[in-house]
Amino acid sequence: MTSLHTEPAARVRALVEKAGTCDVDGEIPFRRYYRSGLEMERMANCYFTDGDLEHALILYSRFITLFVERLPKYPLYVHATQDEKSRIKTKLRNTAFPRAEKIKMTLQQRYQKEHEEWVTEQDKKAAIEFEKRKNEEEAARLLQLDEERRQLEQRKAERPLEKECLQDYHLAEEKQDAEELQRVEKGKEMRHEGDEVSIEPLAWRLQRQCDMNNLPTIPFYTSVAGGGSYPVIESPSVDSSVSSLNATGVITEGLAGMSLYSNNTCWSSATAATASPVLGSESFLPAETAGSMTSMLEQPTIDRSTKPIEAEYSPVQQPQVDRSSKPVTPAEVTRLSSITDVGDCDSSTTIDGFRPVIVSEKLMDDFLRAALSNTLKNIETCGILCGKLSRRVFYITHVLVPKQTGTPDSCTTLNEEELFDYQDKYDLITLGWIHTHPSQTSFMSSVDLHTHCSYQLMLEEAIAIVCAPKHEQTGIFSLTRPFGLKYIAACREPGFHPHPKEPPLYEKAVHVTVTSSASSVLCDLR
Question: Are 360 and 518 in contact (CB under 8 A)?
Answer without folding.
Answer: yes
